[in-house]
Amino acid sequence: MQLILVTGLSGSGKSIALKQLEDLGYYCIDNLPGKYVVPVTKHLHSVRREHLAVSLDARSDVSLSELSRDLEDLVASGVHLRILCLTASTDALVQRYSETRRQHPLSQADSDSPETLVEAIERERKLLEPIMDDAHIIDTTGMLPNTLKHWVRSFVNAKKGAILLTFESFGFKKGLPIASDLVFDVRCLPNPYWVEELRPLNGKDQPVIDFLSKEPLVRSMFEDIRGFVEKWLPHYEAQNRHYLTVSIGCTGGQHRSVYICEQLGKYFSERCEGVITRHRTLDAAK
C-alpha cells in the first residue's frame, strides 16, 4: 500500500497538493485527526485501497513526535510511506492571509490567548519540526498553483529508492529556497545572459548547452558538485535520511543553474533509484 502524508504550514498549499493527489488516483482524506491515521490506513488496506493520501496539520490531537512512532509501526507492517511537507516564508504566508482575510488556524484554536499572525506562523513552524527530517519539503514561496501541482506530480512519479534526491535550480535575486539541504552558488561561471542571442533562452536549450559545455570552469564546477554529492550521499542514507534537496543557484535561475542542475540530474539518474530535477524559475513560467 502507498501512503502519502501531506503536512506543512497553514496557507502553504496543502489543499492544492491534496487535490493533485486525488487527480492522480489517490484516495484522499483532508485534515484527519492524528490518532486515526493508523486505523484508517489499516482499514483501507484491508478493503484493497492501495493508494492513500492524508492531510494532517499541527493542530492534530496527537503530537507529531508521537505520530512518528505510529508511522514506524505502519512501515513495519509493509505500508510504503512518503511524507510531503509544504512550507513558505513568513512574509509569503502573511501576504496570503492578508489577501484571503482568513484567520490562522492556531489563532482560532487559542482564542483565549490571542497571537499575532506572525507569532502563530512561527509557533506552527516549531510544531512541525519533529516530522521535517523525514519529509520531502517543497517551498511554495512565490509559487503559482500550477507549479505546485507539477512538483507534486514529480514527487509521486519519482522512482522509489533508499533516498529521494532532488536537484533544484533557483535565482538568488528571488531569494534562497527554504527547502534546501545543500546549496551551491554558480554565479561565478560565465553567464549566457550577456550573449544577446542566448539571453531569451534557458539552460535546457541546445545553444546554451553548447555555450556552457565548452567552458572549462563550468565543467570544473559540475565535477566538484558531482563529487561532493557522490561522496556524501551514502552518509546521508546511513543516517536514515529519506530525502535530500540540492539547490543550485545563479543570478536569475534561467541559464547556469538550470544547466548544472540538468547535468547533475542526468548523471545521478543513471546511478540512483529516485531522482527529481526541477527549476524554480522556469517552472513558475509554465
In brief, what are we looking at here?
The protein is 44% helix and 19% strand.
Class of secondary structure makeup: alpha/beta
Count of separate DSSP helical elements: 12
N/C terminus separation: 32 Å
Overall body shape = globular
Instruction: Give the full name of the CATH homologous superfamily of the largest domain.
Output: P-loop containing nucleotide triphosphate hydrolases
Oligomer: single chain
- Strands of the widest sheet, in order across it, are 2-3-1-4-5
Helix content: 40-55%
The name CATH uses for the topology of the largest domain is Rossmann fold
Average of the residue pLDDT scores: 90
Give the tally of structural domains. Answer: 2
Based on the coordinates given, report the CATH architecture of the largest domain.
3-Layer(aba) Sandwich
Q: How many beta strands in the DSSP annotation?
A: 9
CATH hierarchy class name of the largest domain: Alpha Beta
Strand content: 15-25%
Which series of helices and strands comes N to C? EHEHEHEHHHHEHEEHHEHEH
* Most strands sheet: 5 strands, parallel
Domain RapZ-like N-terminal: 1-158
GO molecular function, one term: GTP binding
Keywords: ATP-binding, GTP-binding, Nucleotide-binding
Protein name: RNase adapter RapZ
What are the SSEs and their pairings?
Elements: E1 2-8, H1 14-23, E2 27-29, H2 37-46, E3 51-55, H3 64-76, E4 80-87, H4 90-100, H5 105-109, H6 117-127, H7 129-132, E5 136-139, H8 145-157, E6 164-171, E7 182-185, H9 206-213, H10 216-238, E8 243-250, H11 256-269, E9 274-279, H12 280-284
Helix pairs in contact: 1-8, 10-11
